[in-house]
Design goal:
mainly alpha
């Protein structure tokens, strides 16, 4: 959460404000859009259900399963779209400069592994065979580099204002992910663990920015 917040506010948002005067508006648009995307594709709700329900996940060593629940495919589609957008953000960052692209990649990778575990668990939870769940999880992972490649192909001809809009949307997505998913998760940790993790993530992003800048 700290990495995403710091990269979003300290690196990507300032870059977007230099390119467009309406950066804050587009940040808000991205935040609200991600809320509706996640809310209506059920991904966040099902992630929470997996964590708190007493329903057992199918045995991970068997490929036998009943008919899979259709909600699993909605979770897959939502995460795939999210991963594609992550790739677009990385590609857009590198179009601005190497530092922004690298920091965007670091921030996105910081939440990719738990996201991959989540979608795999969700698919198993809804009755998908282990082999099919692995295939879908791999497709979600591939969506990010595919999005980055697509971004490099289409963004080079964009005017600076268009690039600024994309960067502001990226900042909004980072803030949303941190605020809606990662910070609430940190509240589950007892003691200072969650707070120290948040501050540590911010420090990592700040140090990474200083290193890439030099």
């Amino acid at each position: 959460a700290g990495v995403l917040l710091a990269v979003g506010f300290l690196h990507i948002l300032p870059e977007s404000m230099e390119l467009t005067e309406h950066a804050m508006i587009y940040l808000l648009v991205a935040f609200v859009s991600f809320y509706f995307l996640e809310h209506h594709l059920v991904l966040h709700a099902e992630h929470e259900q997996l964590q708190h329900s007493n329903i057992t996940v199918p045995n991970s060593h068997t490929d036998l399963c009943p008919n899979p629940h259709p909600l699993g495919i909605f979770a897959f589609l939502g995460m795939s779209l999210h991963s594609l957008i992550d790739g677009l953000i990385i590609g857009t960052g590198f179009e601005v400069d190497h530092e922004t692209g690298l920091l965007s990649a670091i921030a996105i990778m910081a939440h990719k592994i738990p996201a991959g575990i989540s979608i795999f668990s969700i698919l198993l939870h809804y009755g998908y065979r282990r082999s099919r769940a692995q295939l879908f999880t791999g497709a979600v992972a591939i969506a990010t580099p595919a999005g980055a490649l697509f971004a490099t192909l289409i963004i080079s001809d964009l005017p600076k204002s268009g690039l600024g809009i994309l960067m502001a949307l990226a900042a909004g997505s980072f803030v949303y992910i941190a605020a809606s998913d990662l910070i609430p998760e940190s509240h589950r940790a007892r003691g200072l663990k969650g707070s120290l993790s948040l501050c540590g993530g911010i420090l990592v992003a700040v140090l990474a920015g200083l290193l890439t800048h030099h």
